[in-house]
Amino acid sequence: MSSARRVNAGTLEFTEKRNGKLTDKQHIQLSPDGKTMTMDSHITSTTINGDRKLVYDKQEGSAAMSDSGAMTATPGAAAMIRSGGTQPNLTGTWKLDIPKSNFGQIPPPASQTDTIDDNEPSVKIAEDQKGGMMGDMNLTSTLSTDGKETTSPGMGGAPTTSTAHWDGAALVVDSKLSFQGTDVKVKDTYTLSSDGKTLTQVTHVESGMGNFDSTSVYDKQ
User: Domain residues for 16?
Assistant: First the structure.
């Protein structure tokens, strides 16, 4: 649900609500000379309560828009502009930074590289892990961020059923599987840094063998 109101000739307020869980209130203002547009936004949800500011410069001389010009984001802002400006694109090759990660009492892998193809609403994650508690693993999951249930091979080849959705700028994946006769629930939350160079995966696991949390930090290659 969205609503908008004009404050004055150069200012517009826009409020967007999604699934009753996320509210994005935007204050959009045009500079007096018409060359700069500034958007201040406050986002609240179950996982996010923060502010962001995007500044756009008007581009002159565009062949396709020579009369009115075009507005493009300043460097670094484009990664935050997608589907209402809250959902980043996770596409890329991501290498695990073990010193920055936290696996608790679980031995970390020797190395891990994830390759993500984010082509909404389909997100494909290919994991190449060497060493660690489970040994070498190559797993590929195809998720659907529109909430549709998907099934992919998981630990030990066990079928893993997942649902995924965006909660503001965070991709949340809830998965279920049976491993060695034990039901396991996994919740992964992926967030991208503002410069688009660091991906953080927070994992919460619940099973009959106990619960644990881990944080994996990846650097873009």
Answer: 2-80
